[in-house]
Amino acid sequence: MTYEEFKLRYQYNSTTDLLGEGTFGKVCRATDTLTGSRVAIKIAPVTAEYEKYSLLAEFNKLKHVSPHLNIALYDECYRFATDMGTFDIAISEYYPLGSLDKLIKNHGTTLTDIDKNDIVLGILDGLYHLHQLGLIHRDLKPGNVLIQKLRGQYIAKICDFGLSKYSDIANQSMISQSFMGGTANYSSPEQLKGAQSRRNTDLWSFGVILFELFTGEVPYRVDSTSEATMMRTFQQMQVQALPPSFAQIEEPWSSVVRRSLVFDPMQRYSRVEEIWQTLQGIDVEPQHTSPPVASPSQPLAPKESNTTTVLAAIFVILIISIVSGLLIKSANESNTDTLTQDITSSADSASVPDSTTKGITTPTGISIIAINYLNQLGSSNYTPNEVFNNIESDMNSDDQFKKIAVRKFVDAGDKYYINGDCDNAKACYTIAYNYDPASAKVHERHKRCQ
Questions:
Q1: CA pair distance 182, 222, nearest whole angstrom
Q2: Backbone angles phi, psi at 58, to 5 degrees
Q3: CA distance 353 to 64
Q4: pLDDT tens, 70-96?
Q5: Cα 364 from Cα 376, distance rounded (Å)
Q6: Can you list the alpha helix ranges (DSSP code H) found in 198-335?
Q7: What is the pLDDT of residues 132-158, one digit of tens each?
């Protein structure tokens, strides 16, 4: 598309349609004259110095991120050389409610506990999706969470991935840029110090958002990055000197805030799943093993395994590749998260279950046909109840597979729900709830279509 074609297709007034403006550029609402729909366009100048932070670089970085209810991705991104300079322009869905910071400012005192629960659980779901893909957001704040309201329920959508990263090194130039716009209030201690960042740097930011959503203020205000200010802030963080407004936050969220805002990242929550466990009333000690996130081009080295495990993994890959095109990576049987990622990584491309796979099982004992049926969940081939009828025995006999299936039913329910198919959404949520009624996440979803 040329710049002239772009201007003909997307109509907007840079003054009256302005939604926001900052060091990154500006965002305007516009009308797509081809479809008649309202969209949001983000316009950012391109400079050689900050090319790796450009809008186009952000768009390309996110190409492999699959759609998710709680993630807002760009539909397209163009680079145009104009008389006024070179600009990247990204097109995305328009959300009239704007971002979470606007919602807190304008309606924070009128939000119900259910509203707040929906918002924070949505942010957690979005973070889990990103972290499963090895992506650290590194700039999570209310301004980077868009809000949508569907049938009376608030849906949080994480956006703006300009500072996101696949590796764990957070060099000083990136941290300095992240301070623009007041992001320091949401940055973890390790980010403020320019140290290594792991997944749980996002969980610190989540804790700050949680605190602000329930109290209307941030726990630690970083007005400047001067040495004196940073020393005072670090001292407060180390002893967790939270403002008196912390008393307004009830359990279990107050426990989540405390565990999210632990100064030492090795003592902080390491994974989103640990927060879910706290919300279920389970006291889980941090694993102290949150690894730096590897780039897809530089995967983490696999754990050592014995010969039996290696041969079993090879067997899985060969059998499933032949049967359905699924690729299940080598997994330690005791590692539920790895197993989850292995089985669900090809959910969108799995073939229709084949009767020839009956009786074939993976080394973990899960039948391949059950995996195939589970990967058809949400497709037009089978209803949720038909999928469940074919995997029920595996869910009842294998706890790891049950946990995976519950997550898949919740995700499929979200997709049905967002598309207005409440019958299938209700079926998915009900199945998930029957198997995991204590989960706060599942419980909230189950209430949607009741």
A1: 8
A2: -65, -45
A3: 26
A4: 999 999 999 999 988 999 999 999 999
A5: 21
A6: 200-215, 227-238, 253-260, 272-279, 307-324
A7: 888 888 889 999 999 999 888 999 999
Residue 6, both tokens: 């772009």
Looking up tokens 């969220």, which residue turns up?
A: 253
CB 24 within 8 A of CB 162: yes
- Report the DSSP pairing between strands 25-32 and 38-45: antiparallel
Q: What is the pLDDT of residues 308-328, one digit of tens each?
A: 433 344 344 334 443 334 333
Angle at 68 between CA 112 and CA 148, to 5 degrees: 35
**Can you spell out the DSSP letters for 12-78?**
--TTTTEEEEETTEEEEEEEETTT--EEEEEEEE--GGGGGGSHHHHHHHTTTPPP-TTB---SEEE
Instruction: Specify whether the CB–CB gap between 394 and 360 falls below 8 A.
Output: no
What is the spatial distance between Cα 379 and Cα 264, in angstroms, rounded to a whole number? 43
Four-point Cα dihedral 388, 392, 394, 399, nearest 10:
100
Which DSSP state fits 360?
-
**Do the Cβ atoms of 182 and 89 come closer than 8 Å?**
no
Residue 149: enclosing H or E segment and its boundaries? strand 145-150
CA 15 to each of CA 23, 27, 85, 263: distance values in angstroms, whole numbers, following the listed order: 17, 11, 20, 43
Residue given tokens 């790891």 in the structure block: 400
In sequence order, the 6+-apart residues with CB closer than 8 A to the CB of 323 are: 351, 354, 356, 357, 360, 368, 372
